[in-house]
Amino acid sequence: xxxxxxxxxxxxxxxxxxxxxxxxxxxxxxxxxxxxxxxxxxxxxxxxxxxxxxxxxxxxxxxxxxxxxxxxxxxxxxxxxxxxxxxxxxxxxxxxxxxxxxxxxxxxxxxxxxxxxxxxxxxxxxxxxxxxxxxxxxxxxxxxxxxxxxxxxxxxxxxxxxxxxxxxxxxxxxxxxxxxxxxxxxxxxxxxxxxxxxxxxxxxxxxxxxxxxxxxxxxxxxxxxxxxxxxxxxxxxxxxxxxxxxxxxxxxxxxxxxxxxxxxxxxxxxxxxxxxxxxxxxxxxxxxxxxxxxxxxxxxxxxxxxxxxxxxxxxxxxxxxxxxxxxxxxxxxxxxxxxxxxxxxxxxxxxxxxxxxxxxxxx
Length: 363
Ligand code: FES
What we know:
Blueprint: H1 7-17, H2 21-31, E1 41-51, E2 54-61, E3 73-80, E4 83-90, E5 101-106, H3 112-118, E6 125-128, E7 144-149, H4 153-165, E8 172-178, H5 187-196, E9 200-206, E10 216-218, H6 223-229, E11 236-242, H7 244-254, E12 258-265, E13 280-285, E14 290-295, H8 300-306, E15 324-327, E16 332-334, E17 340-341, E18 345-349, E19 353-355, E20 359-361
Parallel strand pairs: 7-8, 7-11, 8-9, 9-10, 11-12, 13-20
Antiparallel strand pairs: 1-2, 1-6, 2-5, 3-4, 3-6, 13-14, 15-18, 16-17, 16-19
The chain binds FE2/S2 (inorganic) cluster.
């Protein structure tokens, strides 16, 4: 015989089943910090020091992480003294059968997150974004030149390891610039790889120390370095990663020697700001219903933060897309090429644009 369930009981049961993810996440994370209804998270399962001020974290993601390719980045979120921070890091190894993700973090002077991650306890849980980025070794027989300065070495390590897995089907030459020998990351492993694969070579460029080994040279990127890496009139696919100035210098020096040139700079190009950018405009935040006066000469992200609004963000330099939001009306100005955009857009990167006129945002 069927028994009727009172409507109020039924609704409360349904609510229990269809509780909003934020509520579910709260309770799931109480049971296990790695558990979530729909968010990617990862546990730190190993931490090792790679070089002076450089640490690799081995992360075990939960089932919501959809994987990555060598050369891609992820956004990593961490809470420090009650404040949540997000930063982008490259995977520093190719995908492995263990499903783990390695990121290699260089301590930045005054960098809260990079300093915190140097000593984060094994067992800690971090929030994780899905992988993004297009850096990849072109799949043909032409030589490939990988140029890395400072932390730019991290995606290159992943790309080299992915090529090693294929037995270096095409010639790969890696050149790494660092101030001192003690800052070189995985130098011994790279040298061992070069010794066992004729199609792979590694070159270390030291900007603050004398060269001592056959594979070491001195100085910042200059034509002599590149002539040694790409002799005669040989051409190559070039991938460069480092500060903006380094990447642009590589592009300029290699010019027509490049079959293709892929670049990733981890410092943004200089901003183009002039006297006409002074003043303030009114921005309406459609979700919260707030209206604010913000500066026109700062990125929208900085200008909003100045007013106590904290939009989601990661890299703060236009790479990760985390800060993208809908702009239904108003004009914005690109901070690096001064291009004005009047049209509504679904994905305005707040870190790359300043307000040109009064505008509204879906925040
Ligand atoms: S914060 Fe990464 S694109 Fe704006």
